[in-house]
Amino acid sequence: MTLSISRRANALGTETAFVVLAEVNRLVASGRDIVSFCIGQPDFPAPEHVQKAGIEAIVSGRHGYTPSAGIAELREAAARYLGEMRGIAIEPDDVVVGAGAKPFIAYAILSTTDYGAGDEVIYPVPGFPIYESQIVAHGAVPVPLYLRESRGFAFDPNELEDRITPRTRLLILNSPQNPTGGILTPADLEAIAAILRRHPQIWVYADEIYSRLVFDGSFSSIAALPEMQERTIISDGCSKTWAMTGWRIGLTANRTLAPVFTRWVTNTDSCASHISQWAAVAALNGPQDAAQAMRDRFLERRDLIVRLLNEIPGISCQNPGGAFYAWPNVTEACRMTGCADSEAFRKRLLHEAGVAVLADIHFGSRVPGEGQHIRFSYATSNANIERGLRQIAAFVEQASRS
Question: Where are the beta strands (DSSP E) in 79-202?
Fold first, then answer.
């Protein structure tokens, strides 16, 4: 008998940033000098007091399993932190700690839809590619909701209402957003909540991992609106705010689903890293000056990269309201350089200009009528931003002449 793998495994998607990064690493290993804007992780160390808390956890022997939902000290700190950020009351028992925020995407889909039953999940496009991958893997029906450049990369609430059916079980919201840097304003959230109140069967997965990286206005969560908290799965974590991507600490809060998520953790990871949990306690309860300093640096970089992008012929870029991503429109640059689309443009930037970015197709199907886009992660130094954009400008100029 020939061994095989499941259709589910064959269909499983991936996070394309890591695929492109592997390509970049091969080029670097061969001697190429590449300026990379691929990976969305802070280029800063975790704050010193967080590092010390992790070391202290190791030295004091905190190496074993913890309760699957997380240590009490972290659940208490997270309940306070998540609640204060959103202006709502959250109890420690509402909180579950995970090995990063990403597993809760799967847990939310698994807990609100049934495999093969035709249950639908509405998710943003362009968007984090793991949304669609997990929807498909867990046997639900993916329903894309397009983010529009003309709306600052928010979606039209009327399009949301058009996509809701009796089979809709979950709506995924992401603000600030990956890959566009767009944010959902209070007015956007009010309009979404008004629609959802007419459809009480729909849960909301609020991916708010970039909640501390809002540059225009202040952070708002749909969970703070009337009748929304009980149906909203709040997802946040330590990775982006405190530069703790590799520590793998995600935080989620929902009173009804917390016991369900705890069972999923028991069935998968057992628990998040004991050491990392104590570091996260220090991150949430300790001084916030390092987190604020990182946020200020990202804002400075945003302003720099947007200005430089808009100086390149054929490229236009809106000011992203949050996160650390720029999502320029390169439709005209593709035409000028003879590139069929953004993916061809991306490949030529990598191999001819020595600059690594991601294309819009790495974040779902292209939005009809919205043209071509690429993504920059500006979680890198000002010097790298300036060098990379100079090389892109030179490529566009030379390729346009050719």
Answer: 95-98, 120-125, 141-146, 168-174
User: What's the pLDDT band for 402 if we cut at 50, 70, 90?
Assistant: confident
How is the chain split into domains, by residue range?
7-45+290-401, 48-285
Query: 7-45+290-401 adopts what CATH topology?
Result: Aspartate Aminotransferase, domain 1 (3.90.1150)
Place of tokens 């974040």: 363
**What is the C-alpha separation between 15 and 3, in angstroms, rounded?**
27
Query: Considering all CA atoms of the chain, what is the largest pairwise distance in Å, rounded to the nearest integer?
Result: 64
| Assigned CATH class of 48-285 | alpha beta
In which residue are the tokens 């917390």 written?
A: 258
Q: Where are the beta strands (DSSP E) in 78-229?
A: 95-98, 120-125, 141-146, 168-174, 203-207
Euclidean distance between CA atoms 35 and 102, whole angstroms: 27
Mean pLDDT estimate for the chain: 96
pTM value is 0.95
